[in-house]
Amino acid sequence: MNDWNALLQAALVGAERPWTLPALAQEGEHDPVAHMLREAHTHAAPDSPGLLLRLAGAKAVCQRAGWTAPATPLAPIPSAAPESRTLANAAWSQLLSQAVNFGPQRLQHQVLFAMDTAALRAPPALLPALLHAGRQSVALRTHLLPVLGERGRWLAQQNPEWAYACGAQEQADIQTHWAHGSLKQRCAVLRTERATAPAAARERLQADWESLAAKDRAALIATLHVGLCADDEAFLTPQLKDRAIDVRRTAADLLAALPSSAYSQRMVARLQALVQSEQAEPGLVGRLLGRVLASAEPRWTVQAPNQADADWKADQLEPERPKYEPLGERAWWLFQLTSRTPLAWWTSHTGLTPAGVLALAKAGDWNDALLRGWHHAMLWQPDAVWAQALLDSAPAARWDGRSSLLALLASQQREQYHLAQLAASTNLHDVAVSCLDGCAPHAHLGLAVSERLAQLLRQHIDQGALVNDYGLRNQLPDLACALHPQALPQLANLPRSAEETTSLSEALTLLEQVIHSRQQLIQLTQEEPTP
Amino acid sequence: MSRTPLTADAVVALSPDDASTKAARGLVAPAKWPMLGASDAAVWGECQGSGSKPYQTQVDVSGAGPTFRCSCPSRKFPCKHGLALLLLQAQTPQSFTATEPAWVSEWLGARQERAEKKEAKAAAPPVVADPAASAKREAQRVQRMAAGAQELALWLDDTSRKGLAAVSDSDGPAWATVAARMVDAQAPGLGQRVTQAFAVVGQGRDWPARLLGRLGNLQLLVDAVVQRERLTPGLQADLRQALGWPIERDEVLASGERVNDQWQVLAQVLVEREARLTERRVWLQGARSQRRALLVDFSFAGKAFEQGWSVGVPHGGTLAFYPSADPLRALLADSSPVPDAVPLPQAPNSATEWTALATRMAANPWAQSWPLWLDAVQLQYTADAENPWWLWADARAIPLAISEADAWQLMAMAAGGPVSIFGEWAGELLRPLTAWSDADHWVATGVQGDSI
Questions:
Q1: pLDDT tens by residue, chain A, 531 residues
Q2: Fewer CB atoms near the end CB (10 Å): N or C, chain A?
Q3: Considering CB atoms only, which of A8, A58, A512 is closest to B208?
């Protein structure tokens, strides 16, 4: 036992009990401190007041002065790999700092998109804030990850909370990205390869399939959506029996998007019985009559299934209605059939246009189930005509997925849709939200829509309507990011007064700052030579 | 106006907390400021608050760091108006057109006058009102403190006889009473150390050892009070400081050791003490003398500090050191503009630095934190829940007290490369304050575990 431990033990039990210092040999013959303590100990009366604390105090001061850092088994961390991107200059850094710290998210998307396009990387001081932002928002990651640079990727490796941003070096080849990259990077590898060599990408996935975790399988199989072709069926069909439900569902959605697949054929067969023209199976007279009536439009009706068949489960159709499902049981069944049947079947089977099919649904009893089903199908079977028809059929409906439909339209159609909404609607907030839905986070709206929208917003602000319209107030920063650059001046020099409330003041200041940032962004993007 | 305004980021770095930054952003609107102006020496404006009279906000930008003053009642320092004023200047410098009003000229004049007075005072011999009376007062205080120390010695002995294992949270009131008795005996330093010692009870794995170390140090203090006559003058001054009887500024300015040098600002910390009181610690190193110095000032209710400092901006001048066996604390006796920025001196060799630290500890056993500047170290984050942050140096690990946000910022700056770190060594932990790599530097936004 060394001196300090002896003193500590004595102090813990109390100096009332007899205590002494250990033999000198144990502390070290040549330790001057040990000699000093013993000398003080022998010279003092055995019971002199404060002796124990005095020796402890002296020993503690000496220990403190002689402190050496303990040896560590930890190895030094290898430093970050050399950067391949250019460091953002002061103007870009300032802009990024503004966007990351004060938002809105649309501004973050735009700044990161522009920086990624210009092959820039963020300054070190902003990396923790960026990594944090990317942890909160998955959507932000696409352009955030490259902008982190090698230093950002290195930093992410140090903190388990930032694991999403680890991964292989940006300059590494495809093989390294696939073998050692993050899930996001592996998905990117497959998506890129699918665009040019779909079979090679599928084989790459197939080779690793058995060793993948459920979460990875679900994310990676979804990338086959890019360049989906009939050859994929052989790989997808067995995945209907995967252990993970997400994988099974995605496989079913992909197979439904292949009209020639056996899965699609089974789904069509199920619906065929439910979607029939009014004429009952005609007899001879009927057939004759039918010929006469054929010039008139056949009347189609849609029925919901009366029961769930035994083979449904194998095709990822759930007979059990979920607990909080608003649809009734039969509607739930019809919704599932609709969502996994090729959209093209509806038009070819009925001979109607998508708009005609929608009108037919509206006239029947199962409109909600059908709309939801088609909307789901559209996610995997993108079709601009169907998207337009769905949007037109329910202009006022607030769907979570409206942005996915708007994204399918050609930009001109999308603009037309917004303009019509702006002309018709009395609720600026709803139209504004719809415009935001249709605008990709790093893009901006067309000029005509932007000018009309900015004009309406300006009128609204000038009339003082913002004082009570909290909904619109919250949308303003995002809207300022979605407007066409040429429409921005309409929002310059907003009316400010000394009497405005603090919250209105904050909202307007934020709006002014966002507009300022966007103008800077536009200017910087123009200066930056595109690589 | 020829001076370039601070960037928004630099202004935000001056903010005491996030709430202040947010509040300041709400005020960045020209309409809220009926009057705005700027000159080479200052930035000023009137901000419309909730009352009828606008707040008068001004920032002296002539020194090494900005100095704020505002007529608002906020206790934050700087207040949101001061920050908003500089943010507004960063955004729209062209709107700062007003001519200098009287209240700005007065303030700048008063600051100038104070600086001149200080110089004059430093030059003039100290005036002692009545040497006999003050000697008597001093003798009385010494008597009281000695009596207090004697009482404390009895209590310490009593505590150690009963055993430290018997000390628990429930003894708080009893220990607080002892601390209060020391304040009554005009030895508040002793009271503070009793409170600090009790603060470790039940905290962490090895609290009994830390409690013993602190009580042992108190024993050395009360022993020294008994033998005060036999101590060296330096150690007598350290004893006086530790007892909580500070040496007067005037006395330090009049008779303290003077060193003229180019002072490099190694670090600056602001710590909020009790309500409305902000302590500022500025660590300096002389470019020629290699002397290290600590300036401590206090600001009450958000009043401006007399002198602004910025890390990395050197300041020429003379420091007057407080008497001590290990003189560190000093006052700025007079300052002169620096002709050219001197590059920051190299961090000292690690072995030399640790030896110097041991020497300081041996000279003044009652000090509680020391400057430490370590070269070529690496920050590491470990899974240790109690203390995750360490500095790796030559296969050895130095524990850190650092906030998580600051640590990740430092990690991002260093990127695994070696950095040199300056901080305050608290005996068992380093509180990092500033760090430098080849290309970049980092400054802590606050200090962790800074005991009162």
A1: 788 999 999 999 988 888 888 887 766 778 888 888 988 888 888 778 889 999 999 999 999 999 988 888 888 888 888 888 999 998 899 899 989 988 788 999 999 999 999 999 999 999 999 999 988 887 888 899 999 999 999 999 998 888 888 876 665 677 777 888 888 888 888 888 888 888 999 999 999 898 899 999 999 999 998 889 989 999 999 999 999 999 999 999 999 999 899 999 999 999 888 888 875 455 555 555 555 545 456 778 888 888 888 888 888 888 888 888 888 889 999 999 899 998 889 888 888 888 888 888 888 888 888 888 888 888 888 888 888 888 887 655 555 667 777 778 878 888 888 888 888 777 788 788 888 887 888 888 888 889 988 988 888 888 877 777 788 888 889 999 999 989 888 888 777 776 777 778 888 888 888 898 998 899 898 876 544
A2: C
A3: A8
C-beta of residue A350 within 8 angstroms of C-beta of residue A311: no
B440: helix, coil or strand? coil
Backbone angles phi, psi at B318, to 5 degrees: -115, 130
| Residue A27, token pair as written in the block | 């502390």
Distance between CA atoms of residues B348 and B290, nearest Å = 10
Measured between its terminal Cα atoms, the distance across chain A in Å is: 70
Write the Ramachandran bin of A191: left for phi over 0, alpha for psi from -120 to 50, otherwise beta: alpha
Buried b (16+ CB within 10 A) or exposed e, B9-40: bebbebbbeeebbebbbbbbbeebbebbbbbe
List the 91-130 stretch of A: residues with Cβ below 8 A of B.
94, 97-98, 102, 124-125, 127-128
> A74 to chain B: nearest residue by CA?
B395
Within 8 A by CB and 6+ apart from A149, the residues are A83, A85, A121, A122, A170
Q: Which of B9, B30, B380 sits opposite A77 (nearest CB)?
A: B380
A121 beta partners? A87
* Of residues B356, B301, B349, the one with CA closest to residue B328: B356
| Residue numbers in A near B409 (CB within 8 A) | 125, 128
Which one of B48, B152, B219, B361 would you mutate to disrupt binding with A, by most A Cβ within 10 Å of its Cβ? B219
* A 142-171 near B (Cβ less than 8 A): 151-152, 154-155, 158-159
Chain B residues with beta carbon closer than 8 angstroms to that of A510: 25
- Alpha-carbon gap, residue B175 to B202, rounded angstroms: 15
Strands in B196-314 per DSSP E: 257-272, 277-286, 292-300
3-state secondary structure of A241: helix
Q: How far is CA A497 from CA A50, B29, B32, B37, B166, in A?
A: 71, 9, 7, 20, 66
Query: Are the beta carbons of B209 and A154 separated by less than 8 Å?
Result: no
B163 Cα to chain A: minimum distance (Å): 3
Whole-structure pTM value: 0.74
Give me the helix-helix angle, A502-527 and B18-26, nearest 10°: 90
Tokens representing A414 are 């999308």
Q: Tell me if A155 and B393 make a contact (CB, 8 A cut-off).
A: no
Rg of chain A over all Cα atoms, to the nearest angstrom: 35
Q: For residue A235, how many other CB atoms are within 10 A of its CB?
A: 17
Q: Which residues of B touch A124 (CB under 8 A)?
A: 412-413, 415, 440
Give the dihedral sign, CA A137/A139/A145/A146: negative
A to B CB pairs, distance under 8 Å? 186
Q: What DSSP state is assigned to residue A213?
A: -
What ipTM was predicted for this assembly? 0.79
- Tokens linked to A125: 């001081």
Residue B276 φ/ψ region, left for φ over 0, alpha for ψ in the -120 to 50 degree band, beta for the rest: left
